[in-house]
Write a structure and sequence with these properties.
alpha+beta, Immunoglobulin-like, 4-stranded antiparallel sheet, 3-stranded mixed sheet, elongated
Length: 150
């Protein structure tokens, strides 16, 4: 009888954990292709008008990954969480990285998948590329165009 009650307790705990995971929208952003000359990087993720940001100091954040990688390119990873936010399947989010040294901004827009897992975004920095996105464009998610607007 004790074994049955322990199993029932474990099942209840797992169900509660699944419910809590569904209440948190999570995006894992990886920025690849960083070099010793890249400088500081600001990453940000925007969902439903809310943004989360993080500054990565080049001397602390990714130089170890450059030294350990034979290709000489480093990376950073930023996990942004949006607790208690309802994101419907197919809704858009935007993830960006801004290289402070040359104001190079790179962004990627994605759509929330139906899977119960974090969304994953991989950005690749090409040194010397010019910024193609403004800060205002990066922080906003364009509304879908209607057939009449085309």
């Amino acid at each position: 009888m004790l074994k049955n009650s322990q199993v029932a307790g474990q099942i209840g705990g797992e169900s509660e954990t699944k419910i809590k995971k569904q209440d948190i929208f999570k995006i894992i952003l990886t920025v690849n292709g960083l070099g010793k000359e890249s400088g500081d990087v600001i990453t940000f993720v925007t969902v439903n008008g809310q943004s989360k940001t993080k500054l990565f100091d080049d001397k602390k954040s990714y130089l170890n990954s450059i030294n350990s990688n034979s290709g000489g390119q480093g990376f950073i990873e930023y996990v942004s969480t949006f607790p208690n936010m309802t994101i419907k399947t197919g809704e858009q989010y935007k993830a960006c990285a801004l290289l402070m040294r040359d104001s190079n901004l790179i962004c990627q827009t994605g759509n929330n998948s139906p899977a119960l897992r974090p969304e994953i975004v991989d950005l690749y920095i090409k040194q010397g590329d010019e910024a193609t996105t403004t800060i205002n464009q990066a922080l906003s998610i364009p509304e879908e165009k209607k057939e009449d607007d085309k």
